[in-house]
Amino acid sequence: MLRHARALWGPVWWLPALPWLAYAAALAGRGAARWDHLAVAGVAAATAYTSRRSRRFFLNALPFLLVFLVYDAMGQLGGLAAPGRVLACELRAAELALFGVQRGGRLLTPNELLARLEHPALDLLCALPYGGYVPVMVAHWLHLYRRHAVAARRFAWLAFATHLLGILTYRLLPAAPPWYVQARGCAIDPAVESSPAALSRVDLMLGIPYFRDLYSRGATAYGALPSLHVTYPLYGILATYRRASAPSLALQITYAALMLFAAIYLNHHWLIDALLGYAYVALAWAVVGRALPDRGAPDQDPGDLPPLAEASGSQRISGAPRSADAQRLQTKSASLRRFR
C-alpha cells in the first residue's frame, strides 16, 4: 500500500488526505466529530489513494474539500463575534436608506415587505433551494466533470474563491441577519445559535426538524454579510454560459432568482448581503476566469486529462499530443529542428 501511495504522489504521499483525516481525528478526540466530518475524511482518503483516476478526481474536487474544512473550522474556533464588532441595526438602517419601501405610512425593508406574502406554498417553494443547494451544486459539478473538465475546474475554484472571501468577511465583519434583529433588536448575544428563521414553519409543516438540524451545524449566527446562498447558482451559470443550452441557462437563471427571493422572504439575509455576495462572485470570477481560460475545447473524458499539477506545468507531460493543434505544433517543431 505504501508503494502504491508513493507511485501516486511521490515523496509527499503522506500529505494529500492528511488535513481531513487529522481534523476528523482531532474532533473525535474532543467528542465533537459528526458523521459529515468522518464522511469527508473518508472521501478525501479514498479518492486520493485508490487509483490514478481517483487521484485526478481528488485534485479536481479539492476546492470543495477545502471549503468544507475552512468553513467548519471557523465554527469550531468560536469567539468570532465580539458584541462591539457585530453589525445589527446598522445594517437595517442601511437597508431602509437604500431599499426601503413605503407601505401604510411605514418604511419597510424588503424582508418586512415580503413577509406580508407569507403562505405555506411560498414557504415550501423557498425551502427547495435552501434545502437542496448542496446536492444541486454537487450534481451540477459532477455532470460537468464527466462532460468538460475545464468547466468543472472553473466551477470548483470559483466556489472556493467566493467562499474564502465570504468566510474572511464573517470573521472580520460579523453581521446579524434580519431574523435576529427582529427577534432581539440591537443587543448582541455572543452565544446565540444559528436559526432556520422562517424555515421553522416548513419543519412544523413537514413534521421533521430538517432545517433546525441543518442550521444547528452553522459556523456562526453572525454570518449574514455576505449571503453565500445567493452565489451558489452563479457558479454553474458562469462556468457553463458558453456551452449551456437555452433551456439549461433559463433553468439556472430561474434557480438564481428563486434563491435571491428565498433569502429575503425567509428572513435570512438583507438585500445588501445578497449584493455583496454577487460582488464577491464577480471578483472571484475575474481571477478564476483568467487563471483557467475556457477556449471552447471539445468535451473530453476527465480520465484523459492530466492532473491539475501536471496541467499547471509542475511536471513534464509526455506522450502523444492531445489535440490536432498540438500534433501540428509538434510536426512544425520537428521540421524546424531538421532545418537547423
From TrEMBL:
It comes from the Bacteria. It is a multi-pass membrane protein. Keywords: Membrane, Transmembrane, Transmembrane helix. It is found in: Membrane. The chain crosses the membrane at residues 57-74, 121-143, 155-173, 219-237, 249-268, 274-292. Pfam families: PAP2_3. Residues 117-286 form the Inositolphosphotransferase Aur1/Ipt1 domain. This is Inositolphosphotransferase Aur1/Ipt1 domain-containing protein.
